[in-house]
Each structure stands twice: as structure tokens, then as C-alpha cells.
Amino acid sequence: MSMFRPTATHKVIPLVPADGAQPGNGGRIRVHAMRYNPRDPGNAPRLQTYELEQAEGMTLFIALSEIREKQDPSLQFDFVCRAGICGSCAMVINGRPGLACRTLTKAVGPDITLLPLPGFELIGDLSVNTGKWMRAMSERLEAWVHMKEAELDLTRIEARMEPELAEQIYELDRCIECGCCVAGCGTVRMREAFVGAVGLNKIARFRLDPRDTRDDDDFYELVGDDDGVFGCMSLLGCHDVCPKQLPLATQIAFVRRKMAAVGFR
Amino acid sequence: MKVVYTDVLVIGGGLAGLRMAIAAKRRGHDAVILSLVPPKRSHSKAAQGGMQASLGNVIKGQGDNEDVHFEDTVRGSDWGADQAVVRMFVNTAPKAVRELAAWGVPWSRVRRGDRTVIINGQKVTITERDEAHGLMAQRDFGGTKKWRTCYVSDGTGHAMLQAVGDQAIGSGIPVHERAEALALIHDGGRCYGAVVRDLIDGELTAYVAKATAIATGGAGRLYRVTTNAVICEGIGHALALESGAAALGNMEAVQFHPTGIFPAGILVTEGCRGDGGLLKDVDGHRFMPDYEPEKKELASRDVVSRRMEEHIRKGKGVGSRFGDHLWLDITLLGEKHIKTNLREVFEICHHFLGIDPTKDLVAVRPAQHYTMGGVRTKPTGESPTLKGLFAAGEAACWDMHGFNRLGGNSVAETVVAGMIVGEFIADFCDDPGNEFNLPTGLVREFVEREQAKLDALVASRGTEDASALKARMQEIMTAKVGIFRTGRDLEEAVAELQQLLARSRNIGLRTPSPGPNPELVTAYRVQKMLKLALTVAYGALTRTESRGAHFREDHPRRDDAQWLKRTLATWRDGASLPELNYEPLDIAKMELPPGWRGYGAKDYVDHPDTPRRQAEVDALKTQYAGDRFALQRALLPYDDLLPARLRGRNERIDEPFGGTGRAA
Ligand SMILES: Cc1cc2nc3c(=O)[nH]c(=O)nc-3n(C[C@H](O)[C@H](O)[C@H](O)COP(=O)(O)OP(=O)(O)OC[C@H]3O[C@@H](n4cnc5c(N)ncnc54)[C@H](O)[C@@H]3O)c2cc1C
Ligand code: SF4
Ligand code: SF4
Ligand code: FES
């Protein structure tokens, strides 16, 4: 398992709770959440501690919602599906990027330190702008199927595809754009425009898809540089933290081989 | 005052909103999409089980076509649906699923030869045809005669949203994320856009557009126990309701899904039962066949949910410290099947219940799931009463679901309606008669009004807590406006919700800051949600019959004589209840006159017009025997309701077009 390294995008703050709360004591847990509003210049990042009773089956979604309802209505965070499906709630949980909604407090407590995901623009507290980052990455990598014809005859039977190929594409299509891989990546820290494992995985996905008309020369144009596949140092901080367990290591290696082959021609 | 001008303003970045925007953009109109969250995080993402489209590729789907899909959908709706709209839908669904295939959705595919499936608790070997190999596969779902639900493992909505979202990016359509529409800008007859709040800095902007479309999804968070995402709060419904001009249709029609995991309410897909999973009680007994010998676990959702609650009431639930539940047993499907075709289910059970569904039973109980009601539209998707306002997807009452929607018909509706309504929006924008000269005073007035409301909340010294009001509302809705309803419960619910609405005018904030303040968001939303909750509860109180998901214990029969009509709710500013009107459904125009659904209760009160129409239908069936297309045209012509480019038959293995292409 690789350790999470904070990036330059937000200030590094100590991972120990500021108020020195002690672990232990049965059903109580303490959530130490980063508080910071970047639009308020006078305000410096700090950890704030909330103590609450741990309920059975309590997830960080439940805990943070309860904190907001009962203790501090101003705390910012992002949950949507609360089922590990939409990728909204990635944050750094005790030093490791992960999906908060499907993290059980008993698995990470009783002291739980929460930081916003590094590598992304901070909106406030635990909320970061992954959506903006992902859209920019998608535009840059033209991450959509480039079709053969503009207008399809939709009345006709669909093109065939081998069942195994459909499964392989789905395997890579399962990315939820949560940003954990970006947060776990060393290259992102040094190269702001690096497309991350999420981007390289998308290239692998579209490469595999026969409905996409692009060939390796086209993909080389998109990722054949140091902000793309050649920037990756293969340290695989991404692979270990992907909550969907995408085969990032093999896919990145594969894309690199294919792109290197184009580069040598 | 900040103003953004565009041709088309789409409020909502889920499947329906994205697809509408793409349609408009491809016809040359600029579109801007607003979304509370990055569009690919919309709740469409959570759809697991699949999308219905009558392709008939798998052997168990052989013989499927638009006619069978039509009948299933109308029966599912308990005859509440607009049958012409259902026709438009079933004819476009195969086109929509094929378009998505071309856009990159990795639909699960048919593999030729033998495979073992579980049907009715038994292992059965079925043989897929050679000519189906590599075409899209279908699985079984509740309330359908044929296997019709196309799927991508159990991440269907995810894969669809990914593909449609990517095409929207490829089409260069801007999405203004973390933006919330607070009010429609209109003059009572024409809609001109919306007042929008930036959720990052709290600023208001006016978006002015020729056409405005609501695609804001469901309102599940009116309830405490729901499968819906936390952003499904019905704010889009409220935008229409608060306009006073647009109406909401059938808001009392609320679907409960049989298998929410207990107690969190997170969904495990109907695909679990479609693929052969069983429901069991405290004794390990499979009880559904006792109640529903025909369809068993695969009756429609309203029926299965009621049977489950009924069984729990008989003392057959499994006790726990959170209350009673039942079991879902998918162990018989085997590890391989679960880990490939029900992978999301496996993950959910693992992460949230700490169990392994290949070996353990899953604790389930019905949970609020789907909002059949919504912004009432014409078949074009436009509001009949507020020109320039369109709606599609779960937020709309287009009305193909009536009082109960079938599993797999909703994501299908989002893309189908997105395609169809998107074309009509483009037509609307093309029409020079729809140009307008907007008095800027009107825009200013609306922005100032919304700003004043927010300022008042921030400045308020009120004593009410927004979160507490919301929690109480959710409690009332789950306890009293749920699966089983009675006049007395509903009266109490309406009375208390009215009190909550009054109290919501006296909310005070603990953190009165104007910017990205989550408490402020809860405060203004709960004021809107309470109006919506009242619309649901009051509609349910008034409808003294049972139809689809709306079940009145004190009026347990469907009553076509009195209630074959759609509820239309409007809200006058300052009122404490909606105004209800009713729109009758015309039996003389029905292709499938009311009857027994094939599952659930058999007794209902007939409408006096039903026998006459049934006789006409029977005569036409004899006259056109053997030509299903001619018969259909004679029964319910709908072709001219569709945009020209979406008309036409659908090719199937068993209905080939031949080499020459498109059939008439
Ligand atoms: C757990 C689950 C599983 C499901 N599985 C299936 C299935 O297998 N098959 C099936 O057919 N159906 C399924 N459904 C139903 C189906 O997924 C939804 O009905 C459908 O996806 C809704 O799509 P939509 O585009 O209408 O809305 P959504 O996808 O909910 O999108 C709504 C959009 O509106 C935006 N929005 C909301 N309010 C505002 C506002 N005020 N201002 C700006 N933007 C706003 C949101 O940000 C979001 O982008 C499932 C539903 C759930 C809850
Ligand atoms: S392997 Fe590449 S993408 Fe993954 S963390 Fe390392 S540098 Fe980043
Ligand atoms: S690759 Fe994995 S970690 Fe990265 S964004 Fe996708 S799902 Fe998240
Ligand atoms: S809230 Fe959707 S993944 Fe956590």
C-alpha cells in the first residue's frame, strides 16, 4: 500500500488532531475535519473536532450528515448517491484517499481525520472541485467515442460486439471520476496539466472500443507527452487507492507501450 | 445584475437533461445545462438494473416487440398512463438503446449456445441463437411478459450517463455545475428562463432563454427512507409549482421499491429478482408465490412492495433493533453470476452490510424509489399552460408511467424523452413566432425577489431549525403517506405539513452567512419541499381509490368510474394547500381499455365506457388479424406525434428489413 502524499495545491497541515483528543472510550468517535474557506483571506486552514456517538453501521456519510444537522450546519462536504457509485465524496481519510460514503466509522475510528482531496481546487472544508478538473481532462483527451457517421440509421439492428469485448470495455468504463488516483499521484504534484491515471485509463478504454474511429496516431497526439503517458513515473500510487479497483497499473503500462511504439516510428 | 443569454436553458444534467441539450445543439441551438453537481454524478448514475427496449435478441425475449412493451407499460401504470405517449415511447426505445450502443455504452451482449439461468427458483438451461450472438442482451424484470431489459452488468445508469455525458462534452455544451435554479422567470403565460444561485459563492444570476427545460429528476428526499440520492429533493418540481402557472401531474403516485437494503435504504437492483433471486421471511419461507401465483417475485413493484409489508404485518418479518425486515436470497445465482452481472450489488452488500451475498441473505424492506408525478406536459414535452417551459425525465409527467412505472422504463424514458422533447425544443426555437422581447424589468423583478427571500432568511431572527423541519417532514411522509394509506393518516399528514410550512417561514440560521452556506441551502429548500410534500399528501387524501402505487386501505379498489383521471396541482402564492384539478383520460381513445393487470387485485370498478371501447377494439383485432402494424394504426394513431426523424419501425432478428434498408 502506498502512502498518500499531500500536494502543493493546498497547504499541508498536520495529520494529528489539533486539540489532542485521546482515542478509546467505547461508542464515541471524534471526527477531525479540515475547515477552510479559500474565499475568506483572513481564515487559515485548521482541524476542527466533532465528537459523536457511533451508531451501528455508521458510515462517514451518516456521521458527517449528523454533524451538519446537529452540531455545525456550516461544514461543507459533498455527497450525492451515498452508495459508492457517483464519485462525489472522495476525501483523505486518515491519510488515505477514499470514498467517505462507503467508509464505516468503526473501520477507521475512533479518531478520524478528514482532509479535502489534494490536486483539486478547494471549494471549502472537505469540498473540492473535481467536476471542473474532470471536464478539462475530458476536453483535452477528447474523451468521447468519435463515431464513424454523424447520423446513424437507428431503425436497423445494432452492430455486433463479442461479449468478452463488451465486458473488457465495461471493466475500464467503471471509473467514477472520483479523483482518488489523482490525489494519490506524485506526478500531479509536479505537473499541473498531467492527465492522471483517470485520463490514461480513458485512453485505454477508447482504444479498446471498435466504435471509436481513432487510431494510435490520434491517441499519441493526445497523450504522447510528459503531461500524458510519458509523465507517469509508474509509482502506482493511483492503483492502490482506486475505489473501483480498476486495473490501472496494467492499463497505464499498456498505453505507454503502445504510445512508445508510435513515438519510435 | 448578471444575466446569461442562451437559446435553450436545461435545468438538470442527468440523462434526460443531457440528451435534450444534445438534441437542441445538434439542430444548431445553443444550450446551457445547469446542475447541482457535476453532471456525471447525477442520480441517473445509480440506475443499476437496466433499460427496457423491445429488441427481442435473447431467446426469452423472442417475440417481443413494441406491442408487448406497450401492454406491459400500460398495465404497469394501472391505466393511469397516456397511451399515445406510451406508444411514442415504446417505438423510440429501441432507437435510443441502439444510439447509445453507437455512443459507446458497453451493453452486455448475447453469447450463442447453452447457458444456465435460474427461473422460479429452478436451474434451467436455455440456448441462445447463433444469429443473436454479439447483439445486446436482455434480462427479466418485474411486470414484463418478455425479457426486455438491456443492461451493462448492474452499472447500466453509470455506463449510460458516462456515454451521454461524454457526447455532451464532445458537442461542446457548457454545463454550469454547482448551480441551482431557484425560480422560473415568467409572466404567467410565457417562461423566459430562471433565477440561478451559484452554490460556490452564493451569487444569483438570471439565465434568459427562448426555451427552458426542467430535467431535475425525482423527489425521493421528501421521505425518510428512500433509495434516492441526497440531491433528489424535488426542487425542479417546486420551480414549476411555485410559478403558479405550470401544473404538476399525479404527485400522489409515489413508487416504493421492494429491495432497499435495511435500514439504509440503498437500492439493490430488481435485476436480483429478475435474474432469479427470491424473497424470504423469518422462517426462510419463499412467500411471494402464496400471494402472487402468476408473477411471484416479479409482479410489478407496487404489488411486491405491498405484499412484503402485508407479510411483515402478519408477523413474518425478521426482527432487528431498527425494526422488521425480510430477506433477499441471491445465493442460488452462484458466485460467478453475482460477481459479473450483479457486481454493484456485491459491492454494496460488502461495504454497507458487511456481508457476502454469494453466501449470506440480504436484509431488505421497501423504500421510496420513484416519483411518477411531475411537471405536466403535452406529448411534445411542453407545459400546456406555460409556453416555453419543457420537462423530461423523472421530473416530468409526460405521462408514460401513470400510477406505477416498470423497472427499466425510467432510464429508457430519460433518453427517449430527451431525444423527442429535444427535437421539439429545437422546433420551438426555430419558429420565428417564438421570438420574444423581454422587458428587463421582469428579469430584475424576479432576481430581486429571490435575493430578498435569501436576505430575509439570513437576517431572520426566527426560532425554527431548518434541518429539524426537514426531518419531521420526512418522518411524516414515510409514516403516513407511504405504501399503505388511509384517510385518517393522510388528514393528519396534511394538517401537520401545513403547520410545518407555516413554521418554515420562521426559520432562523445558526450560521447566518450568505455565501456557500449549507444551512441556508437547507432552509430555502425545505420551504419548497414542504409545498411539494403537501401536494403529494393532499393529492393522496383526495384520491379516494387505489391505483398502482397509490393504495388506500379505506378505498382498496381501483375506481375507473370516478378516478380515471390525472391529478393536476397548482400552487397560488401564499396558499397553504395546492389547488387540485382533474384531467380525464379518454377511454374512447385507448388502445388497451382498462382491465385486470395480470397480477395484484382483481376487483375494480369499471368505467361505463369500457365495454363499448373493448368491443370496438375486439372488432378491429378481428378485422386486422395478422397485420400488427395496420391494427395498431387503426387502434391508436400516434406517428404524427413523433418528430419526423424518429419515426419508423424497428428492425429485429425476427422482423428483418431485408437488404434495402428502412421499412415504411
Ligand atoms: C438507486 C436507483 C436505481 C435505479 N435503477 C433504475 C434502473 O435500473 N432502470 C431504470 O429504468 N431506472 C432506474 N432508476 C430510476 C432512474 O435512474 C431515474 O429515474 C432517472 O435516472 C432520472 O433521470 P433524470 O435525468 O430525470 O434525473 P437525474 O439523473 O436525477 O438528474 C437530475 C439533474 O438535475 C439537477 N438538478 C436538480 N435540481 C436542480 C436545480 N434546482 N437546479 C439545477 N439543477 C438541478 C441535478 O444536479 C441532476 O443533474 C433507479 C433509481 C434509483 C434511485
Ligand atoms: S503510476 Fe502514474 S498515474 Fe499512477 S500515481 Fe504513479 S505517476 Fe500517477
Ligand atoms: S480511476 Fe479509479 S481512482 Fe481514478 S477517478 Fe477513476 S475510479 Fe477514481
Ligand atoms: S456519495 Fe456517491 S460515491 Fe460517495
Task: Describe this entry's structure for a reader.
The complex is a heterodimer of chains A (265) and B (664). Chain A has 265 residues and is of the alpha+beta class. Chain A is built from 10 helices and 7 strands. Chain A has helices at residues 60-71, 105-108, 130-141, 163-173, 180-183, 186-190, 196-208, 216-223, 237-241, 248-264; strands at residues 28-35, 46-53, 90-93, 96-99, 111-115, 122-124, 127-128. A 5-stranded mixed β-sheet of chain A has the order 2-1-5-3-4. In chain A, helix 4 (163-173) runs antiparallel to helix 7 (196-208) and helix 8 crosses helix 10. The longest helix of chain A is centred in the C-terminal third of the chain and has 17 residues, at 248-264. Chain A is elongated and about 60 Å long. The two termini of chain A are 37 Å apart. By secondary structure, chain B is an alpha/beta fold. Helix content of chain B is 35%, strand content 17%. Chain B contains 18 helices and 23 strands. In chain B, strands 1, 2, 8, 9, 10, 11 and 18 form a 7-stranded mixed β-sheet that branches. A 5-stranded mixed β-sheet of chain B has the order 19-17-12-21-22. A 4-stranded antiparallel β-sheet of chain B has the order 13-16-15-14, with helices on one face. In chain B, a hairpin with an 8-residue loop joins strand 21 (565-570) and strand 22. In chain B, helix 2 crosses helix 3 (83-102) and helix 13 (466-480) runs antiparallel to helix 14 (487-503). Chain B starts with a strand and ends in a 29-residue tail after the last helix. Chains A and B meet through helix 1, helix 3 and helix 4 of A and helix 3, helix 4, helix 10, helix 13 and helix 15 of B. The structure holds flavin-adenine dinucleotide (FAD), iron/sulfur cluster (2 copies) and FE2/S2 (inorganic) cluster. Residues 11-17, 34-37, 39, 42-44, 46-51, 156-157, 179-181, 215-218, 227-228, 231-232, 235-236, 267, 269, 369-370, 393-395, 407-412, 414 of chain B line the site of flavin-adenine dinucleotide (FAD).
